[in-house]
Amino acid sequence: MQPELHVSPNIYMKPFPRFDRPMVIGYIGLENLKYARRLCNDRVIFDLNLHLDKVIRKPEDLDVKLKDLLQFLLEHERRLNFSLETTLDKAKFFCYRGLMTCVACTPYENREPWKIVAILFKGAIYLCARDTEEKLNRKRNMTERDKQFTSWGYKFEQYILSDEPDSEPNPNVPVDENEEFSLVFTTKLNRHTIVYGAEMDGIRCDKEDVSKPPLELGPEAIVKYLSTKEFIELKTNRHIENHRQETSFRRFKSKKWWCQSFLAGIDTIFCGYRDDDGIVEEVKMWQIKDLAKMSQKFWKPDVCFNFLDNFLIYVKRCLAREIKRKHGEKALNNIQELPMISLLFEWAPGMPVQVARNYSHDDDPILMPWFTDNYGKVAK
Which domain of life, per UniProt (predicted)? Predict the structure, then answer.
């Protein structure tokens, strides 16, 4: 019988686990780095429908898997010089922030199931979210109104962010939803080392003068520059007009906002409050610590991160069982030499997390040959 991981919040009511403040080790899409100059509580009129008919949307069949992160690891392998670990206890996790947010919020989730693939390759564990049937159906059945809601969020960013630290935002051009800038972080959660990519909105320029990154000095100097900057997270939300909407915000949305920001070392969220027609009429700053305080009746940060820690332990234990089954006990001390091992983890509301052995990496490849054939040649 396969082991299970139970999800009830009561199990994880313990002190907040050790979590190091995330450290920037790289970047993806530097040409899309943006800046935020005017950040204060204010009354505004931002029409999120401006040039909506000309928006450049992401392809509907887009399945990025871990492509951008893998390209980053390959391009910066010599600079990062990650060691090839021999045991699961020391194996690094590689993933995206969105996956970590999804897992951390699981003890309080009652609607969205998830599927996550874990791949052991050359002494590291790669985690990749896969679409559930429910999510695939939503993608297939997206209405124009659904697409409009998505585009409104991007348009709000255009009203706040500019291409240069000393220039004004320009919302009078169509939005290209494919333009993304991400930071790559590393952190430790108790005994786990995690490396993850996180899309970032923009650098705050309202507190101090900010210059552009020193492109001519190379990656190390750019990483140092990015490490010293404070980033802002931008959100939109419908005006909260009654108790039911307030409760819904505190129970659901605030949890995800807090997790996303906390995982990227972001302290402040700038929110645009809109009406049903896509007109933002108020902007407001949120400190993420206040989000957690106001919502503690509905969710607790320590439960979220204790569960995330336990999920990573569970992944390692399931991989250990699979290694012993396929390769014997001695292989646990030589994991960097093992052939690729893939496991599928599934969860649905009201159920424990379960692992299935029948995941086929050949049928749904996540680590592509251009990565597996070339990565790991310079590690010590």
Answer: Eukaryota
